[in-house]
Recover the amino acids of this structure.
């Protein structure tokens, strides 16, 4: 064995930590596309996300990652007949569809290629796929129809069911989602707001289910006013209504009046039994 072998071995040992540090730094370089947390977008891509996407979708693309999420896609033609082949080639699952709108399961790196497809009019972020389980199927179809027609900005009544009676925190979250409260009842709130705000309602953790509501519907309790609970009229309103429209008479049934002396009940004279089973 050479006399220089121990010196070579010691040199290798001394250089090993520096080599490992250099190797680790190479994997953590910000230019590495696989491990970068934030994708660098060009000006054209930013504009594309601005005009044909929304802010939540843009933030999702910027953050990158590998977790899939649900998004609403609006196509220029029928979603199933015209786009199912394209989606199949791109390995993009179609979760639901109605007319020219569909709910897709996307990854962040699939958003920009899809937006660049001429058959796609717009994309809207929805959220994690699991939230769809808290959406009533009929409400989901109505949501797709609104997006397809471009009327998703119009208000609609929605019945939100909570795990328990919602408090001030939940009501603030409902307001932050762009909805106003129409009525309260137990663990339910009847709210009104834009269709596009449904995904934000589902962000509220205590919401367990969303379904369609109607303006005339009451969430098991109705509107609460200061004077009379569960009524839209105040006491003064009721008095004015009764003066303007007197209530119907109750008939000509007279009830005999008996005056009893105040004091012990023993002073009250016994009543005769009714005849022929009639009432007193």
């Amino acid at each position: 064995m050479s006399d220089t072998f121990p010196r070579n071995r010691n040199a290798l040992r001394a250089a090993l930590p520096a080599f490992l540090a250099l190797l680790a730094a190479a994997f953590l370089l910000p230019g590495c596309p696989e491990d970068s947390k934030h994708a660098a977008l060009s000006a054209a891509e930013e504009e594309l996300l601005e005009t044909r996407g929304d802010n939540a979708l843009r933030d999702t693309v910027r953050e990158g990652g590998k977790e899939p999420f649900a998004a609403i896609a609006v196509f220029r033609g029928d979603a199933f007949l015209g786009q199912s082949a394209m989606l199949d080639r791109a390995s993009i699952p179609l979760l639901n569809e109605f007319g020219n709108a569909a709910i897709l399961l996307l990854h962040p790196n699939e958003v920009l290629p899809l937006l660049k497809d001429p058959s796609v009019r717009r994309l809207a972020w929805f959220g994690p796929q699991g939230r769809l389980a808290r959406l009533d199927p009929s409400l989901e179809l109505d949501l797709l129809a609104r997006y397809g027609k471009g009327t998703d900005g119009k208000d609609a009544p929605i019945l939100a069911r909570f795990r328990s009676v919602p408090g001030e925190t939940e009501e603030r979250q409902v307001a932050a989602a762009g909805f106003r409260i129409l009525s309260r009842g137990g663990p339910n709130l009847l709210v009104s707001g834009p269709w596009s705000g449904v995904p934000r309602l589902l962000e509220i953790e205590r919401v367990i289910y969303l379904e369609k509501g109607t303006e005339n519907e009451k969430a098991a309790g109705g509107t609460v006013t200061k004077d009379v609970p569960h009524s839209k009229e105040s006491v003064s309103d009721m008095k004015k209504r009764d003066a303007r429209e007197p209530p119907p008479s109750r008939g000509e049934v007279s009830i005999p009046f008996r005056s009893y002396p105040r004091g012990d009940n023993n002073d009250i004279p016994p009543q005769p039994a009714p005849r022929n089973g009639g009432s007193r």
User: Anything to note?
Assistant: The domain at 43-135 is CATH 3.30.70.2980 (Alpha-Beta Plaits). The CA atoms of residues 19 and 25 lie 10 Å apart. Residues 25-36, 221-231, 250-265 have pLDDT under 50 and may be disordered.
